[in-house]
Specification:
Elements (H helix, E strand, L loop, with lengths): L2 E7 L6 H14 L2 E6 L7 H7 L6 E6 L1 H14 L3 E5 L5 H6 L5 H10 L1 E10 L2 E3 L2 E5 H8 L2 H7 L2 H11 L5 E6 L4 E6 L1 E5 L3 E2 L3 E2 L11 E6 L11 H4 L10 E6 L1 E6 L4 E4 L2 E5 L2 E14 L3
């Protein structure tokens, strides 16, 4: 059966331009009828998806987590299934879902995989796949250029983090759950929906993208150098067991700060505090490798 697919590729993604023709050939061999669209401005992807919502059976997105973040709201509204071609730098959503970075394998997953409904995070009206965070991660996002990511790949995240960590200063935040209020002096608060973020770090050891919960951690350190011993543990999420890390989970959180602070969703700055976070269970269907 021929499936009609809207193919959206971020040509500025690390491998976007170079691998576009290769992806098109693979998908056509797998019997997809493609409508190819691209734009210089990721915000226009929302309108493009709505334009084709009654003309296609699914949307295939080639790019990284930032490109996926740009399309997520339109996918929720149209309820079109998502196929992923991991062409970005970190590809954390693909990693969470077990989608191969091999282009032929990723195309095969879209053609022969199974549809799995996943949860989404939501903050101030914006959906996210992986994580929403404020503090240190925002400084990293602002410093991390496309050119630097294209040149150094995932290593760019680590290098940039080391460049900004020593300048980090704690800020005060109020974290509210359904029945408790915490005041924290912190350098970073992250609220995770998926498992991986930031180039392969785990939000907590047992996080899943369909567990219908959010996982929050707060790095409550006084001096920049205290974060250095935490970095190895952050690769597998075990930093949450350290004394200077607060860890919470639940379906909703609210965060307040004395002045508005930028919030990064899947690597893009999209909103500011005060912020309300919640999980949207089974919000979206994604093609993943068969179990």
């Amino acid at each position: 059966m021929t499936l009609r697919a809207l193919l959206l590729v971020n040509r500025h993604a690390r491998q976007g331009e170079a691998r576009l023709l290769q992806a098109i050939n693979y998908l056509k061999e797998l019997n997809f009828q493609l409508i190819e669209e691209s734009t210089e401005h990721p915000k226009q992807l929302y309108q493009i998806i709505h334009q084709y919502k009654n003309k296609v059976d699914l949307v295939i997105v080639g790019g990284g987590d930032g490109t996926l973040n740009a399309v997520v709201d339109a996918l929720v509204e149209t309820q079109l299934p998502l196929g992923i071609l991991p062409l970005g730098t970190a590809n954390d959503l693909a990693r969470t879902l077990g989608i191969s970075n091999s282009l032929p394998e990723a195309c095969k997953t879209i053609a022969q995989g199974e549809l799995r409904r996943i949860d989404l995070g939501w903050v101030n009206g914006k959906h996210f796949f992986n994580v929403a965070s404020l503090g240190l991660s925002v400084k990293i996002t602002r410093r991390l250029t496309k050119e630097f990511k294209r040149r150094w790949g995932v290593l760019a995240y680590a290098v940039t983090a080391l460049q900004v960590i020593w300048k980090s200063r704690p800020f005060t935040a109020e974290i509210r759950t359904k029945d408790r209020v915490f005041r924290a002096k912190t350098v970073q608060i992250a609220v995770g929906n998926g498992r991986y973020y930031g180039g392969g770090m785990a939000i907590v050891p047992d996080a899943r993208i369909d567990d219908q919960r959010l996982d929050l951690y707060s790095l409550e350190i006084s001096h920049w150098w205290e974060i250095i011993p935490l970095l190895p543990a952050m690769r597998n999420g075990r930093h949450i067991h350290r004394q200077n890390v607060r860890a919470l989970n639940g379906r909703e959180f609210e965060i307040y700060t004395s002045k508005p602070r930028a919030i990064n969703t899947d690597g893009e700055i999209t909103t500011y505090t005060p912020a309300r976070f919640c999980v949207i269970p089974k919000a979206l269907a994604v093609l993943v490798p068969p179990v």
